[in-house]
Amino acid sequence: MAEELGPRGTTVNSVRPGVVPTDLNPWLADPVARERTAGLSAPKRVAEVSDIADVVAFPSSPDSRRITGQHLDATGGAALGVNLL
User: Fold this and answer.
1) How many domains does the chain divide into?
2) What CATH number should be reported for the domain holding residue 32?
3) Which of 35, 74, 42, 43 is nearest to 58 (CA)?
4) 57 in a structural domain
5) Which residues pair with 16 in a beta bridge?
6) Residue of 2, 31, 81, 82 with fewest CB within 10 Å of its CB?
7) Which string of DSSP letters, residue by residue, matches the chain?
């Protein structure tokens, strides 16, 4: 899509957010599950919605106009060395 939409001035990128406490992950209310999940990331914490919003904001801004066709991993390193695609 990046190649197809590039001539129009449109960039195409994606973000892998990892585990975030939302309605889709009610099991994070369990302290043991949350602690185990946090332990998978380099910062040893579960991301907050605002963490992911900040990651999405940059490639959505004019400052990233030369970045296209990229996949941003915002899992806090939880996917390091793991091919999830």
Assistant:
1) 1
2) 3.40.50.720
3) 74
4) yes
5) 73
6) 81
7) -HHHHGGGT---EEEE-----STT-GGGGSHHHHHHHHTTSTTSSPPPHHHHHHHHHTTTSGGGTT--SEEEE-STTTTTT----
Task: State the pTM of this model.
Answer: 0.81
| Lookup: tokens for 40 | 């998978």
pLDDT tens readout for residues 19-70: 999 999 999 999 999 999 999 999 999 999 999 999 999 999 999 999 999 9
| 21 domain residue, yes or no | yes
- The amino acid present at 51, given as its one-letter code, is D
The answer to the question of residue 80 being in a domain is: no
Q: How many residues does the chain have?
A: 85
Residue 81 within a domain: no
Q: Enter the tokens of residue 46.
A: 């579960």
Question: What span, in angstroms and rounded, lies between the C-alpha atoms of 72 and 68?
Answer: 11
What is residue 82's predicted lDDT score, i.e. its pLDDT?
A: 65
